[in-house]
Amino acid sequence: MTLAAGGATSLLLIVGVVIVAVLLFLFWFGRRQVARRPAPPQEPQPRADSWEEPDEHPDHHHHGRHGRPPESR
After folding, report:
1. CA distance from start to end of the chain
2. Are 64 and 70 contacting, i.e. CB atoms less than 8 angstroms apart?
3. Residue range 41-63, pLDDT digits in tens
């Protein structure tokens, strides 16, 4: 009985080592693929200035926090 348990333990150890080796290989391979990608363009992107500050349009109603009207008391 102990021989079978030792064989099962060895098999699980081998399977665990193989899984770790495959994960390390995939991590290394993924890092290589990311390193090969071209760098994103450094010129200004379209709509890069599309963010508007709240005070840019005075016609919007300012209701305090989170755009909600103030609570009545």
Report:
1. 79
2. yes
3. 788 777 766 676 656 555 555 55
